[in-house]
Design a protein that fits this description.
heterodimer; A: 442 residues; alpha+beta; 4-stranded antiparallel beta sheet; 13 strands; elongated; B: 237 residues; alpha/beta; Rossmann fold; 6-stranded mixed beta sheet; 8 helices; 10 strands
Amino acid sequence: MNQRDLFIISFRFIRVRFLESLMVVLGLALGVAIISSLFSLARAYNYEMETQSNNPEQREIRVESNTGLSLLPGNKSPALKIVDTQRKKVIFTVSELVKARKACPDVEDGYISFGTRFSVTDTSALSRSEIKNFECKMVSPEYFTANNMEIAVGSIFTESDIHSANSVIVLDKKLATKLFPDEDSSIIGKNITLSSPISGGNLTFTVIGVLKYKNTGVTATDPTGNSGTAYCPYTLSLQYRSQKGLDTLSFSVPDIKRLKKAVYQLNNYFSSQYGINSILIHSSLDWEKDQKRVIIPIFSIITLFVGAGLLMASMNILNLMLARIARQKKNIGIMMAIGASRFDIFKLFLTESLTLGVMGGVLGCFIAFLLSWLLQLLLSPAGTGGGGPQLDVIRGAGPEISVTFSIMAVALLLTLILNAVFGIYPAYKASRTEPTDALRSE
Amino acid sequence: MIKLENAGKNYDLGAVKVAALKNINLLIEKGEFVSIMGPSGSGKSSLLHILGLLDKPTSGTYKLENYEVISLSDKELSRIRNQHFGFVFQSFNLFSEFNALDNVIMPMIYAKVSSKERKEKAKGLLASMGLEHRMYHFPNMLSGGEQQRVAIARSLANNPDLILADEPTGNLPSHMGAKILEILDKLNKESVTLIMVTHNEKIGRCGKRMIRLKDGEIVSDQVIKNRTNPLTDLQGE
């Protein structure tokens, strides 16, 4: 019997037992649909994680003086932070940046960066601006190169600005457009009076540059929202502080893949300089770890349920196929009488099972498209908020939730394998039927 | 040529062992029309199943054209059943999922006959049974006699040398049974060997030789002198 005839005969048996076949097909279709949707969701999450890792901010490593103790061991964000007054605070010097870079081959750049928030006080000068406050980063000039930031108009700070702690400010394109909606190159040289916690009062800044617009991807945890960022010489902040040193140094890696190694190298270097536990190293690895801590259990539970569901569907197929064979016993006897070998019977029932599998798979792919569309709607950025940054990550990737051909192929293959595995036993059982018994059955 | 020597068939039913056939010695030559008769439980069907290679004897030997059947593989046995044997059953045993034409086509599918050729042949066979107008009817749309004629057409699909008929008229009214027997007799005249199981004496006498079974043993094996003529003797029975 050739494959075509085998398929035609099995298809006829499927057609005759339509309702029974439909139940098997639906069971499989749901399995394929759920697996495909889960894969799509996981793919969207991975894509988002990758986007995050391409963001220059994700390639940043911050070395801080360790002054705090956690209430609970292992808890990274205690509700109450206790300052260990006995611990000596580490004060870094600028030369440490160069030394650390030399000692750590996977580190590319070293710079100084710490953030603060500025409030707009000079409302007369910025009459059309709706911005009330924005984030300002107190940085060294290396910050711009490390984060691949290019100037559009004007210039960034010079060494002399840093040395003299000049009140100059560089705006990113987004912030510049919001603060000065009607102006472009004429922004340079303009003065803005801002209020900041660093000075404890008003301070007038001169705009010296505007950065080129750069889409750094979705930053789920970015508290600045959409207002944009400004950049000032870090020395400006230091002159208002009682403590005249640096308690944070920042480094960057050229490639996110080198982040782990770089963190390890920096930890070794600073521990050897200041002692173990004197410094804290923060990077996007902490963020990633936090993300994974929440997401992985969620995915594990979903996978577990889907796996269990698919297993139940497969067991259902096994039972349905066994029942089919019991009902087809007489036909098996007739087939054997007219010349079917045991192997022919085995092939016929396995083909029937696989045909049901393919039909279920194809239907499942259609349902998967529908499910992914629904997921996209539910998790789109335009959707309602809530659920924390972990859900924001998925939500941000809304448009990316799509059932690709590779996902469908994997889901289909998985279902076909399961179908074949659970179809083999009934097919084998059918092939072992004794023709004399089968012919006597009703 | 079919040769059974001391063939026996035992069924193991757990605590009880049932001997369905005991020391069967039988020689059937090509072109014979053998009727196997006996009361219920005498082993007629068991013998027919063994002769038709649907079952194997538990003792003794079965030679088919000098080949020892017991040593043949399932693939070889199925090929013989397909290309040399034809079966006609009391309850017709047609595939209810297929129409008359497809039922006749089925054995040719296993014989790997081309699609076009098998369709032509099946149509010819159904026409020869007077069923040209019933080709696309499903079994439940056919009368008992028509179903049995479809079954005979199916048994002839691969030009068999031997037809094994198990109570072929058992489920039919007498006038239809007579027609079936007439067809079988005609096939025998065309040199097809026929082995027919029946418990009806008159129908049994349609054959040329009668073998009587009792409690799994052959009690008589004789040539029939006054054969029943299905056309004249069975009408109105």
